[in-house]
Amino acid sequence: MICAEAKAAEVDAAIGVFDSGVGGLTVLNALREALPNENLVYLGDTARVPYGTKSAVSVMRYAEQAVSALQARHIKAIVIACNTASAMALEHLQACYPMLPVLGVIEPGAIAACKATRRKHIGVIATESTTNNQAYQKAILGLMPEARVQAQACSLFVALAEEGWHEGTLVEQIIAKCLSPMLERHSPEEQLDTLVLGCTHFPTLSQAIARVVGKEVQLVDSAATTAAAVKERLAAAALLNPQKTSGQLSFLVTDGPDRFVRVANNFFNEEIAAASVELVDIQHHSSVVK
């Protein structure tokens, strides 16, 4: 395998974050909170969103192109802020960029779920590709072999999140319909007690999801645990930025910067100025996936 050459990282370099669109901004929020002094470059591959309905080969190709584009921006770490890409492309990217820390959201989410569960009955809701790949199921069972894991594809939630439909009776009815297979009545000891939000879009629906599943079910969002893992990895590699001022934010998109800014208001805790979003073409970047 021949991948793009990676240079040794420097402490003042940025952390590169990528997603298929805007959902990864929930991870960017967590990184901003955990590492306020770090420079961050976010790439949303909005021209090819969603990744959740694409084949593994396509997702791997898109991910390698995204990281190749970020690598040109002087980065010291890569965060895959997309569950689908984490499931399908993490190992590939780690092989391509052995000199850089490359982290996804699957393992931190699995660790958080195993810590949260009381009855070892864990549900995972995600896109079709992520559930079919069984990345969460494998990660959770690798940590807790005795766990019972149910996964349900809820791709419709992505559209709800991006349109800002986060609350209301209709939203809760849609959520209830999608989750009905995993919320079927069981004996008390078998009932679902933990639910992993296995797509970075889903935290915006967390209040509505919580009302549907009930107080007995603990929701797990991997964003905070991913940010903690990034901080730990950078500290271990002596790559934490020592600057005392707030880090700089840069935004790159592959299509529709105006729509990105509009939809981003549903995901990001800070206002994004349209002039700060750069339109880039990443498809010309080398890709090793054939």
UniProtKB/TrEMBL annotation:
Keyword DNA damage attributed: no
Catalyses which reaction(s): L-glutamate = D-glutamate
EC number assigned by the record: 5.1.1.3
Keywords: Cell shape, Cell wall biogenesis/degradation, Isomerase, Peptidoglycan synthesis
Pathway noted in the entry: Cell wall biogenesis; peptidoglycan biosynthesis
Positions annotated to bind substrate: 19-20, 51-52, 83-84, 200-201
Annotated catalytic residues: 82 (proton donor/acceptor), 199 (proton donor/acceptor)
Keyword Lipid biosynthesis set for record: no
Enzyme class: isomerase
Family: Belongs to the aspartate/glutamate racemases family.
HAMAP family listed in its UniProt record: Glu_racemase
NCBIfam families in UniProt: glut_race
Biological role stated in the UniProt entry: Provides the (R)-glutamate required for cell wall biosynthesis.
Official protein name in the record: Glutamate racemase
